[in-house]
Amino acid sequence: xxxxxxxxxxxxxxxxxxxxxxxxxxxxxxxxxxxxxxxxxxxxxxxxxxxxxxxxxxxxxxxxxxxxxxxxxxxxxxxxxxxxxxxxxxxxxxxxxxxxxxxxx
Length: 105
Hints:
Layout: H1 6-18, H2 39-56, H3 63-74, H4 78-104
Helix pairs in contact: 1-4, 2-3
């Protein structure tokens, strides 16, 4: 069920708890528009980063940090800025939901 505010998310959570619904609520929070990177650009950097990965013969738990590093390299740091903005936006929404929950109790 789509909702548009932290208050609606908080209400949905309380209702699901009151109804004893087992499970969780999944919240999708978009990246701020000013920090979006076009999908075509991400795909290009991903291809380059994957090529670097195969050339470096990296496997296992080292794959993710390597790929993030290569994405940052190929994007001249834009992916770091975007990921940080998304993280900050998620923290902000989490705080807004917590505040709304407190206000509904």
